[in-house]
Write a structure and sequence with these properties.
The protein is of the alpha+beta class. The protein is built from 13 helices and 22 strands.
Length: about 525
């Protein structure tokens, strides 16, 4: 049930009941239409603390608070027996206006006194604390743990940080019926949903004081997690990527060049791969606000002409300034085998073992051996100063017909280091619906803008109507990890819609290095206590 349907069926009769009540109490019925103040006034008239009204802002908990209000409302009209209270509360949209219209206002002074009750007092105190914490988590700031090495060294695996939701404006929850303090699965389970989709909240964002800019670190809901694999491990990965992976393996086994496939053959391959995957795994729809949380750096914004050449990002034809601790794979050629002392020194210099490719030797096209290491520019400079190092060369992965790379189509020849120029969609921007543009933007229009896109005999139809142009309805951003060869980001699944963005990291409270053995105090990275990301 949509928000506005829910509003029409429940909140309109409830507020009509408040209108009648406030007329009887002499407050003026019009006050029932003033948001928040109406419930502050209701608290006063039913003998409850004013701060109960704050609980209505907490997703999930607001239903508990509302039913508590309903009980107090009916009691204020002289209804005390449990049987009637249960019936009236369960059918509150009907009975609130009926009671307010027909019954005399009883007030709070003449109600039977509430007997002291330690359990009730504790429950009310805990409920109030949970309500306040949920409001803070939903609208102001949310704790977050960095799960992977994709943003190292700026954001480390094991960082515990606070994400500001106020900067860009908090998104009003789309799934208000949710278990508090968890994301998308119930405690002690990996795949049991922590939310209900019986009705959905409005697609609203509160005002913020800025918008994401190139260079900002952003936290967002994983865009291609809209279809989640019901599996403890695969739930954090793209369902679509699993399909592309199966299709790629099939072509590899049959030694078929993807570029030789026709459009119909490609669609058939994906369909067969999808059937094979779904025969083994279950999937479920995931609302935007319950998709997995990701943290990356915004490297391109609405309307930017984005391109990657030889691993370097270009915006509107100009090279973008790289983050100070940007990381790439490098070929490290040595004059002799690395000694254990040098290896130990290098391990201490690494961000974490997640980034160390190990000290295995590889062979290049000329038959020369090298070590493949993940390095930033400071580490490159350090290695080049060692007498045992001959040269350090940044890896650049050549373009190939890899449909695991965005836009996930055989006709586009991209790689993580080479990406053809395209324009990131902006709100109000129009495009011609050509065959080339559809390859780039069809999923955006279909999945994020909720339009039905069809192509019949070369003609594009949007929501059943012929269309030669399309105008985007929201802004989009390009997000990439600083660990460029160790990050799952927009290069694999495309732009991030504005309505998926949650906020920006404010502070790293503390950080634990899981690669260190021993107690939590030995794992603590003292240099990252209260670190401000940039």
């Amino acid at each position: 049930m949509g928000f506005f349907s829910f509003f029409a069926l429940t909140l309109i009769p409830v507020h009509y009941g408040l209108y009648l009540m406030f007329n009887k109490t002499g407050d003026g019925g019009w006050k029932a239409l003033v948001p928040m103040y109406n419930y502050v006034l209701l608290s006063k008239r039913v003998g409850r603390p004013w701060y109960w009204s704050i609980g209505l802002l907490a997703p999930g908990l607001n239903l508990i608070v509302f039913f508590a209000y309903a009980v107090a409302f009916f009691r204020s009209f002289g209804i005390f027996d449990s049987q009637r209270l249960w019936k009236y509360c369960l059918l509150y949209p009907y009975y609130i206006p009926q009671v307010a219209k027909k019954e005399a206002y009883f007030g709070t002074e003449n109600q039977p006194p509430r007997m002291p009750n330690t359990v009730r007092d504790w429950v009310e105190s805990i409920l109030f604390a949970v309500v306040v914490a949920t409001i803070i988590k939903t609208y102001l700031a949310e704790p977050f743990r960095i799960p992977s090495a994709s943003m190292e060294d700026e954001m480390m695996t094991g960082d515990f940080l606070v994400v500001s939701k106020m900067s860009y404006g908090a998104q009003v929850p789309l799934t208000p019926l949710t278990f508090p303090f968890v994301h998308n699965s119930l405690p002690f389970t990996a795949t049991t949903p922590s939310f209900l989709e019986w009705w959905k909240g409005p697609d609203w964002r509160l005002p913020g004081w800025t918008s994401p800019k190139s260079g900002d670190i952003i936290v967002f809901n994983f865009p291609v997690n809209d279809t989640m694999v019901v599996d403890p491990v695969l739930k954090a990965f793209s369902y679509y990527d699993q399909i592309y992976m199966i299709a790629g393996q099939e072509l590899s086994q049959r030694r078929i060049d993807p570029s030789t496939l026709s459009e119909s053959d490609f669609e058939l391959l994906l369909s067969q791969s999808r059937e094979a995957f779904l025969s083994e795994y279950k999937v479920m729809h995931m609302p935007i606000d319950k998709c997995e949380n990701f943290v990356k750096r915004c490297v391109g914004g609405p309307g930017d002409r984005f391109e990657i050449r030889q691993g370097q990002i270009f915006i509107n034809g100009k090279p973008q300034k790289n983050p100070e601790m940007l990381v790439h794979h490098h070929k490290v050629y040595t004059k002799q085998a690395l000694t254990e002392m040098v290896k130990t020194e290098l391990r201490a210099f690494y961000f974490s073992n997640d980034d160390a490719m190990g000290f295995r030797t590889y062979t290049d096209s000329n038959g020369v051996g090298f070590y493949l290491l993940n390095l930033n520019q400071k580490q490159v400079a350090y290695l080049r100063g060692l007498p045992s190092i001959d040269s350090v060369v940044q890896m650049v992965y050549a373009p190939e017909h890899n449909f695991q790379i965005w836009p996930n189509h055989i006709s586009v020849n991209n790689s993580v280091d080479q990406m053809a120029a395209f324009v990131i969609p902006a709100k109000g921007m129009s495009i011609e619906l050509t065959k080339e543009n559809l390859v780039l933007y069809q999923r955006i229009i279909r999945a994020y803008e909720q339009k039905n896109v069809e192509v019949r005999e070369g003609v594009v139809y949007i929501d059943g109507q012929k269309a030669s142009k399309y105008t985007f309805e929201q802004n989009y951003y390009w997000a990439m990890g600083d660990n460029r060869h160790g990050s799952l980001d927009s290069r694999f699944w495309g732009p991030v819609p504005e309505d998926h963005i949650k906020g920006t990291p404010w502070i790293v409270v503390f950080s634990l290095d899981g690669d260190r053995s021993g107690s939590i105090f030995k794992q603590l990275r003292t240099d990252r206590l209260f670190y401000i990301p940039n």
